[in-house]
């Protein structure tokens, strides 16, 4: 202590699942791991994040967030698109007993659930910034280091995906990056002394140049971010 950097990168992806699975706490698996676990860890550890001279001018709390969660991008408009609606499913507990296991209250869709979770990560960084940046000096960011499609995240996808998606990203979209390069990009965001701006969604273009990616209308929705925060607090037991 103190802690300088926290990177919330835990995730599960179940795009072919026909039925939801659940965490030990009873939440739909992907939202329980990708959003609620991320949110609780960040809240609990926030008091240990203190501004310091190393490795940046301010402490940092970041979340890697793929572009499918941000509908301002081409990939973000591939069906099913991320959309949390009025959060009625989240408010119902996401356990199947109080309604839908999907955040927007609709029928279960494993691919959309993952995208919605990444949207949650981006929205909560906006709310973290609003609530704590001025007081603590902590930098709250999200980032998309590129398409890293060789990791175990895709282990539950169909075999054809593995055969086609990697070469498609390498040679057609040019969006593929290696795990090593992605790690370097993440390290750059949380350690570069010139990148201490909070409330930013960092991305890299095809020339490997870093830029501030534009946020979608939903990611920029301050009221939705506040509502998401309050419901999430209740679900993880931080408020009654």
TrEMBL record:
UniProt subcellular location: Plastid, Chloroplast
Entry keyword set: Chlorophyll biosynthesis, Chloroplast, NADP, Oxidoreductase, Photosynthesis, Plastid, Transit peptide
InterPro entries per UniProt: NAD(P)-bd_dom_sf (IPR036291), Prochl_reduct (IPR005979)
Catalytic activity of the protein: chlorophyllide a + NADP(+) = protochlorophyllide a + NADPH + H(+)
GO BP term, pick one: chlorophyll biosynthetic process
Enzyme Commission number(s) of this protein: 1.3.1.33
Residue segments, region Disordered: 53-72
Similarity-based family: Belongs to the short-chain dehydrogenases/reductases (SDR) family. POR subfamily.
Protein name: NADPH-protochlorophyllide oxidoreductase
Source species of the chain: Digitaria exilis
């Amino acid at each position: 202590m103190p802690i300088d950097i926290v990177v919330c990168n835990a995730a599960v992806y179940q795009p072919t699942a026909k039925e939801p699975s659940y965490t030990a706490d009873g939440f739909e698996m992907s939202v329980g791991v990708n959003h609620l676990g991320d949110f609780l860890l960040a809240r609990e550890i926030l008091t240990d994040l203190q501004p310091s001279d190393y490795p940046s001018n301010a402490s940092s709390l970041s979340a890697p967030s793929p572009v499918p969660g941000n509908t301002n991008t081409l990939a973000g408009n591939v069906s099913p698109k991320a959309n949390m609606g009025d959060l009625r499913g989240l408010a119902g507990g996401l356990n199947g007993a109080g309604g839908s296991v999907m955040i927007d209250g609709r029928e279960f869709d494993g691919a959309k659930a993952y995208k919605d979770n990444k949207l949650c990560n981006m929205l909560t960084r906006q709310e973290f910034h609003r609530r704590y940046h001025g007081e603590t000096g902590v930098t709250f960011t999200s980032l998309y280091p590129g398409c890293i499609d060789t990791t175990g995240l895709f282990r539950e996808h169909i075999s054809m995906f593995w055969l086609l998606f990697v070469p498609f990203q390498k040679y057609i979209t040019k969006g593929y990056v290696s795990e090593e390069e992605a790690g370097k990009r993440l390290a750059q965001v949380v350690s570069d002394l010139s990148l201490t701006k909070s409330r930013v969604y960092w991305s890299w273009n095809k020339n490997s140049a870093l830029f501030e990616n534009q946020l979608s209308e939903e990611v920029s929705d301050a009221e939705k971010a506040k509502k998401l925060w309050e419901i999430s607090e209740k679900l993880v037991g931080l408020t009654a």
